[in-house]
Amino acid sequence: MTLPPERKGHTASADLAEKRTGLAAAVAAGVWRTDPAPEEVQIGGVRYLRFSPSGASRGTLLHMHGGAFRIGCPEQIAPLAASLAQACKVTVICPAYRLAPEYPFPAGLNDGWAVLRALAETMPRALILSGDSAGGGLAASLAAMAHQASIPLVGLALLSPWLDLSVIDPAYITNAATDPLFSAEAAQEAAALYLQGHMPSDPLASPLLGELSCYPPTYLNAGMGEVLAGDARRLRDRLEQAGVPVTFHAVDGMEHVAVTRDRCLVGSDETFERLAEFVESILLLAD
To answer: What's the CA gap between 78 and 73, in Å, rounded?
Structure first.
């Protein structure tokens, strides 16, 4: 499993650039500020935020943020990461991987891989991968790469993961009216910006299409009205067929990646509790 060479992308549209400017302003205004604040570190040339628990760390959780490969930042995950760090006594790492269209596939995946390899060398305790939305797809691809490189993972947690960039799952149609945050049109546009001519059938771009029997125990979460609920269901089915322990936590009425956005949203608290329970169970097995 070899990543293709990196390619030169193109400039973001004015609309996307404006959204990124708004996101940067929200970060500067402290919208996602936590107490204590995370450490800002670089590893393998990639900036990341490190959230440490009070007391000794029992392991490391590497989380890839969402944003359809074209927007987003680790600061948005800060409240979730800080809460997980304290609840589970783990170190949570959130990389600022490169985004499309300036940096198409596989640049963001390369950044995640650089951080994962460095963590495996410097923090040898239990290592868990997680991600939300597009970041869930990156985390799933990284899990397969880790297996091939003999990097042991004790768990994988995916929140509303985007796993198939061909955008063909029936849920894009059946859930179109119940998902206010994502759509088939948005997914097709984002996939085109990210892939820029690369085939969506590549398992490193669409991990749902790859070999899954190598995955560690996996927690899957999605709202049943999301357009990405279909990707989550298909992954559950394939993992069960491959004999991989999988927990599929489906939540009625929950919006896309609610737990990363606002703990007051429907299903958010429930998701956090189930995610923390999964991490705790994995750490107990690893101890």
So the answer is: 10
DSSP for 269-281 reads: HHHHHHHHHHHHH
The residues, any chain, with a CB within 8 Å of residue 264's CB and separated by 6 or more, are none
Residue with tokens 């490169």: 98
Ordered domains of the chain (ranges, CATH): 14-286 (3.40.50.1820)
Q: Smallest Cα–Cα separation from 165: which of 79, 100, 252, 74?
A: 100
Query: In Å, what is the CA distance from 57 to each residue of 52, 54, 92, 127, 281?
Result: 7, 8, 10, 11, 15
Decide if 52 contacts 85 (C-beta within 8 A): yes
pLDDT digits (tens, 9 = 90+) for 28-55: 999 999 999 999 999 888 999 999 999 9
> Do residues 67 and 75 make contact, with C-beta atoms less than 8 angstroms apart?
no
- Quote the tokens at residue 279: 């991490």
Q: Are 68 and 187 spatial neighbours (Cβ–Cβ below 8 Å)?
A: yes
Confidence of residue 203 (pLDDT cuts 50, 70, 90): very high
- pLDDT tens-digit series, residues 99-125: 999 999 999 999 999 999 999 998 768
